């Protein structure tokens, strides 16, 4: 590295310093914008532009099957969506799906991360095994699980019956009260390894000295976990939970591959409903209205969370 | 450190070069061409053809060979055959049609016919057909089903006529010599079969694409239709105007409930899709099903389960009827309609149909003497089809109505009323409701 | 030590029990795929499914390798995923650096919010708008369409991961380099990159995996076999009236195994890389 001695504002003395700093700051600002430019370009072309289209379409009549009806629709699309018989079901299912999935994933992720953080033989092997579900494509995982869960020729039902846990094969994906829960179960299977890795990373950065010091002070395993380890995981946990709430809420593939939202809308979530409006009814007005609403829900949720946490931090 | 830098440089170049390559493609392309394949007239025309064939089967291989034969024998036409499964074909076609980027020809389901026609994506084939020497060899009721306002907008690719398939051994074990002819006979046989063999008598599809196809058949067997063309050329479901029809429609839902109550079908069948329905029948898990000729293809995988399967006419209540699936060959509006027709007429020709669809072709001059083909084709005259309207909302409503009848146990009359309303709502949304 | 010996032994046993439980849960469907892929057709769909294979066969693998365009799909996926990974990495290194060091500028902050926002758009909704964009750019049926789309999808998270990492690198390290006259780009590549190898690996693995597994856009943007990627290619075994499970599972195994092997070899980096970003998040 050759030192290039053209100008070094930091070394200039006296009254020139302030002017130089702002000049420098300006240059830095330009540089900062240059750095985010490529990412921003992608965002504008492939996210922002479609997003604006969606927002605009939500106030238009836009039905491919009925081109005669077009133009400004006001809030008609929103009204139609809210009045849909299954709107509330889908809203509730989305909440259930998101909360249960994220909670289950977090619990399993934490448990597996804690186990993998112990000094035992074969750790590398176990860690490799636990990553596998995350690597299997959703479509393939969904189809394989669907097959394994069928009542008549699926291995899971057969084993459950043989073990005496079930009296007769049960159609997990075909009954109103278990379809959504079953998809949650499979979703947890596929997504928890991401938590495992993140939390394991968090655990490994927990200082061993502090834990040992606490042990010498007489803190038991449980106390040490609750008061030393867990607080250290707070930031990681918040980040992964935050991002997974978003990802899970907008997830479409898993439910579509396994149940298509059925039976009788019992596993229908908002993204499935958006898909139906767009690709089955060709009603892009309604689809856009629902999507805008969903976006609105999520943004307001996070704004609420943000203010809540800022306020808490100030105290 | 240097190596790493080089790696990044390489990646950057890679990104750039692909982007540039794409730009190059753009420049070479005449702006008017939707498919990117149009070239000056004297040169060969390329037709994009999307088929849902299964390349691992003999049938799929025959199709590929036959298409290649056409390609080789026509210097001025190139066929670009792409295999795309029915699962995603619909979404791909909708996206492509919307972007003005449709292929020249594609396979498809009859359920999409009304929609694509509404999207104004389909080529009017009437003038070509009228000049075609083979027109009289296609079943007239099949062509009729693909004709809207006097214009034929699609061609029949193959037929999936439904018949009653039964495991003869299961019926024999229950002491039954002949398959049932009516709904009541079927319901009466069910307890006997269950008692003697431990297996259910019948199978249905309660969910998925197959379930509306079965529902429209049962409705037809009780002499009710989904939607009728009215004087103004638009459609309407008239059950609510006509108590007699409403009662008949309700009887159909009652039939579904009776099947469940009498344990004539497995409890799970209320949410079976076509895969479960077919698979369980092939495994001889139940005795009878109304299904299509493709089941014959399962013999290789499950020879034991399939060896005693026989074909009969579907059970009925008032009027013998079956569902006739007409899998259309869609020809889209493009710049090369003449070449597209040339290829389409080859796909409909005797030689291709004989080789590819021996037991399910739409030509009356090619009835197969051996195997299943004959038994299925004998039912062609009583086949019913979906009305030529946008069906997306309607088939979904039909599926929901079955769930209401079998999962929620709503009263059959209520379900019939609900479905009637849902059909008209859907017609109204797409601007196809009579009187609107 | 920290706990008594008997307690220690109990904990070890418990740990093994938990890990074995997890292994069964994680491996079960994968083993089922593996078993199915070497079963003859007659044993695949029966009333008594079992892991036991009485007549193992390589028939399905042969069919996949010789009877289908699997190798083309595989090659395409490797290419698209690799380019996507490279592109996302470069873009997100800069964007992540800006988010980490320059949040004081309002524009950068807004950019961060935009990145977060982009995560909230359901992919289903983008299907038709993006198809139109690609159509207008004449990119339908090209590798570029998928590379562009996948890069867009992966950049936000990669950016956040890189930001998390840069946050954990002390600023002093850069200052001293700056005094030595390094440009910002020089600082990033000469000072930060060498110490961030694990984070780079973790971020790349994430980007790669996303591109490798994506299904819907891969299907909608691509019309021919020469450009088709793996997941849509595999689903082609789901035939017209029946699914060729043996071949589908054989193809799945062959598409999942390489990634599993990559992950197994690089998993150390994965955890280390996440550690760097995880502390500050």
TrEMBL record, chain A:
<keyword id="KW-0812">Transmembrane</keyword>
<feature type="domain" description="ABC transmembrane type-1">
    <location>
        <begin position="91"/>
        <end position="305"/>
    </location>
</feature>
<keyword id="KW-0472">Membrane</keyword>
<keyword id="KW-1003">Cell membrane</keyword>
<keyword id="KW-1133">Transmembrane helix</keyword>
<feature type="transmembrane region" description="Helical">
    <location>
        <begin position="95"/>
        <end position="116"/>
    </location>
</feature>
<feature type="transmembrane region" description="Helical">
    <location>
        <begin position="128"/>
        <end position="150"/>
    </location>
</feature>
<feature type="transmembrane region" description="Helical">
    <location>
        <begin position="31"/>
        <end position="56"/>
    </location>
</feature>
<dbReference type="GO" id="GO:0055085">
    <property type="term" value="P:transmembrane transport"/>
</dbReference>
<keyword id="KW-0813">Transport</keyword>
<dbReference type="InterPro" id="IPR000515">
    <property type="entry name" value="MetI-like"/>
</dbReference>
<comment type="similarity">
    <text>Belongs to the binding-protein-dependent transport system permease family.</text>
</comment>
<dbReference type="GO" id="GO:0005886">
    <property type="term" value="C:plasma membrane"/>
</dbReference>
<feature type="transmembrane region" description="Helical">
    <location>
        <begin position="170"/>
        <end position="189"/>
    </location>
</feature>
<dbReference type="InterPro" id="IPR035906">
    <property type="entry name" value="MetI-like_sf"/>
</dbReference>
TrEMBL record, chain B:
<dbReference type="Pfam" id="PF01547">
    <property type="entry name" value="SBP_bac_1"/>
</dbReference>
<protein>
    <submittedName>
        <fullName>Carbohydrate ABC transporter substrate-binding protein (CUT1 family)</fullName>
    </submittedName>
</protein>
<feature type="signal peptide">
    <location>
        <begin position="1"/>
        <end position="21"/>
    </location>
</feature>
<dbReference type="InterPro" id="IPR050490">
    <property type="entry name" value="Bact_solute-bd_prot1"/>
</dbReference>
<dbReference type="InterPro" id="IPR006059">
    <property type="entry name" value="SBP"/>
</dbReference>
<keyword id="KW-0732">Signal</keyword>
From TrEMBL, chain C:
<feature type="domain" description="ABC transmembrane type-1">
    <location>
        <begin position="74"/>
        <end position="266"/>
    </location>
</feature>
<protein>
    <submittedName>
        <fullName>Carbohydrate ABC transporter membrane protein 2 (CUT1 family)</fullName>
    </submittedName>
</protein>
<dbReference type="InterPro" id="IPR000515">
    <property type="entry name" value="MetI-like"/>
</dbReference>
<dbReference type="InterPro" id="IPR050901">
    <property type="entry name" value="BP-dep_ABC_trans_perm"/>
</dbReference>
<dbReference type="GO" id="GO:0055085">
    <property type="term" value="P:transmembrane transport"/>
</dbReference>
<feature type="transmembrane region" description="Helical">
    <location>
        <begin position="12"/>
        <end position="35"/>
    </location>
</feature>
<dbReference type="InterPro" id="IPR035906">
    <property type="entry name" value="MetI-like_sf"/>
</dbReference>
<feature type="transmembrane region" description="Helical">
    <location>
        <begin position="111"/>
        <end position="134"/>
    </location>
</feature>
<keyword id="KW-0472">Membrane</keyword>
<keyword id="KW-1133">Transmembrane helix</keyword>
<feature type="transmembrane region" description="Helical">
    <location>
        <begin position="78"/>
        <end position="99"/>
    </location>
</feature>
<dbReference type="GO" id="GO:0005886">
    <property type="term" value="C:plasma membrane"/>
</dbReference>
<feature type="transmembrane region" description="Helical">
    <location>
        <begin position="146"/>
        <end position="166"/>
    </location>
</feature>
<keyword id="KW-0813">Transport</keyword>
<feature type="transmembrane region" description="Helical">
    <location>
        <begin position="245"/>
        <end position="266"/>
    </location>
</feature>
């Amino acid at each position: 590295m050759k030192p290039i001695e053209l100008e070094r504002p930091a070394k200039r003395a006296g009254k020139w310093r302030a002017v130089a700093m702002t000049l420098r700051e300006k240059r830095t600002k330009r540089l900062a914008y240059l750095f985010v430019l490529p990412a921003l370009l992608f965002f504008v072309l492939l996210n922002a532009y479609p997003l604006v289209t969606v927002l605009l379409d939500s106030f238009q009549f836009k039905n491919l099957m009925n081109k005669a009806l077009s133009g400004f629709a006001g809030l008609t699309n929103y009204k139609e969506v809210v009045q849909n018989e299954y709107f509330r079901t889908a809203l509730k299912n989305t909440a259930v799906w998101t909360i249960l999935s994220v909670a289950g994933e977090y619990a399993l992720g934490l448990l597996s991360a804690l186990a993998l953080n112990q000094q035992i033989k074969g750790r590398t092997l176990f860690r490799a095994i636990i990553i596998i579900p995350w690597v299997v494509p959703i479509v393939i995982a969904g189809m394989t699980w669907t097959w394994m869960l069928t009542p008549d020729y699926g291995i899971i039902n057969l084993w459950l019956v043989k073990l005496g846990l079930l009296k007769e094969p049960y159609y997990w994906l075909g009954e109103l009260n278990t379809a959504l829960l079953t998809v949650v179960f499979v979703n947890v299977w596929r997504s928890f390894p991401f938590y495992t890795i993140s939390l394991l990373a968090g655990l490994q950065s927990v200082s061993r000295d502090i834990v040992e010091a606490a042990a010498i002070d007489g803190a038991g395993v449980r106390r040490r976990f609750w008061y030393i380890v867990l607080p250290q995981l707070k930031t990681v946990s918040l980040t992964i939970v935050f991002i997974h709430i978003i990802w899970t809420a907008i997830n479409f593939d898993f439910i579509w591959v396994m149940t298509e939202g059925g039976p009788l809308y019992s596993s229908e979530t908002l993204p499935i409903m958006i898909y139906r409006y767009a690709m089955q009814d060709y009603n892009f007005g309604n689809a856009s209205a629902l999507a805008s609403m969903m976006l609105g829900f999520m943004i307001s949720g996070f704004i609420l969370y943000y203010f809540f946490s800022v306020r808490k931090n100030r105290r | 450190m240097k190596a790493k830098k080089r790696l990044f440089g390489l990646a950057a170049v890679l990104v750039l070069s692909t982007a540039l390559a794409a730009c190059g493609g753009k420049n070479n392309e005449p702006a008017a061409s939707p498919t990117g394949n149009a070239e000056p007239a004297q040169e060969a025309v390329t037709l994009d053809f999307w088929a849902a064939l299964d390349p691992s089967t003999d049938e799929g291989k025959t199709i590929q060979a036959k298409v290649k034969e056409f390609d080789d024998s026509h210097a001025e036409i190139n066929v670009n055959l792409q295999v795309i499964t029915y699962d995603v074909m619909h979404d791909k076609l909708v996206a492509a049609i919307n972007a003005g980027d449709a292929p020249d020809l594609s396979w498809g389901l009859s359920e999409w016919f009304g929609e694509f026609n509404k999207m104004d994506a389909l080529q009017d084939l009437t003038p070509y057909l009228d000049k075609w020497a083979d027109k009289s060899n296609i079943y007239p009721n099949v062509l009729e089903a693909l004709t809207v306002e006097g214009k034929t907008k699609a061609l029949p690719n193959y037929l999936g006529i439904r018949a009653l398939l039964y495991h003869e051994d299961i019926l024999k074990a229950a002491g039954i010599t002949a398959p049932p002819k009516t709904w009541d006979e079927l319901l009466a046989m069910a307890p006997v079969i269950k008692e003697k063999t431990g297996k259910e008598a019948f199978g249905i599809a309660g969910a998925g694409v197959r379930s509306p196809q079965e529902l429209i058949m049962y409705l037809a067997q009780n002499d009710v239709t989904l939607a009728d063309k009215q004087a103004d050329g638009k459609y309407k479901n008239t059950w609510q105007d006509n108590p007699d029809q409403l009662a008949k429609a309700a009887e159909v839902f009652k039939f579904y409930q009776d099947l469940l109550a009498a344990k004539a079908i497995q409890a799970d069948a209320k949410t079976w899709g076509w895969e479960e329905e077919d698979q369980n029948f092939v495994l001889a898990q139940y005795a009878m099903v109304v299904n299509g000729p493709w089941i014959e293809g399962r013999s290789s995988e499950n020879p034991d389960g399939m060896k005693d399967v026989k074909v009969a006419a579907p059970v009925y209540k008032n009027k013998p009827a079956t569902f006739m699936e007409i899998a259309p060959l869609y020809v889209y509006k493009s710049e090369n309609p003449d070449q597209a027709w040339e290829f389409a007429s080859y796909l409909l020709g005797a030689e291709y149909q004989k080789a590819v669809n021996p037991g399910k072709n739409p030509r009356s001059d090619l009835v197969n003497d051996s195997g299943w083909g004959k038994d299925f084709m004998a039912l062609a005259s009583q086949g019913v089809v979906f009305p030529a309207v946008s069906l997306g909302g309607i088939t979904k409503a039909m599926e929901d109505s079955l769930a209401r009848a079998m999962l929620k146990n709503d009263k059959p009359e209520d379900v019939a009323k609900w479905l009637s309303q849902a059909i008209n709502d859907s017609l109204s949304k797409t601007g196809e409701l009579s009187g609107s | 030590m920290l706990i008594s010996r008997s307690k220690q032994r109990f904990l070890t046993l418990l740990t093994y029990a938990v890990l074995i439980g997890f292994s069964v849960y994680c491996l079960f469907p994968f083993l089922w795929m593996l078993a199915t892929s070497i079963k003859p057709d007659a044993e695949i769909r029966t009333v008594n499914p079992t892991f036991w294979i009485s007549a193992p066969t390589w028939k399905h693998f042969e069919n996949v390798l010789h009877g289908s365009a699997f190798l083309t799909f595989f090659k395409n996926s490797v290419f698209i995923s690799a380019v996507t990974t490279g592109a996302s990495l470069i873009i997100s290194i800069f964007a992540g650096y800006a988010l980490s060091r320059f949040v004081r500028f309002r524009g950068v902050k807004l950019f961060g919010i935009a990145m977060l926002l982009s995560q909230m758009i359901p992919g289903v909704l983008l299907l038709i708008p993006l198809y139109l964009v690609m159509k207008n750019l004449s990119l339908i049926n090209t590798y570029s369409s998928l590379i562009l789309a996948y890069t867009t999808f992966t950049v936000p998270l990669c950016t956040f991961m890189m930001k998390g990492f840069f946050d954990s690198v002390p600023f002093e390290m850069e200052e001293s380099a700056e005094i030595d006259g390094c440009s910002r780009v020089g600082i990033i590549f000469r000072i930060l990159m060498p110490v961030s190898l694990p984070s780079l690996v973790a971020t790349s693995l994430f980007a790669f995996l996303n591109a490798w597994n994506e299904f819907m856009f891969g299907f909608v943007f691509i019309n021919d076999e020469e450009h088709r990627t793996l997941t849509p290619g595999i689903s082609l075994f789901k035939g017209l009236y029946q699914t060729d499970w043996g071949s589908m599972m054989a193809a799945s195994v062959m598409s999942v195994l390489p990634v599993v092997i990559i992950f197994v070899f690089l998993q150390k980096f994965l955890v280390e890389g996440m550690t760097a970003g995880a502390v500050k998040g």
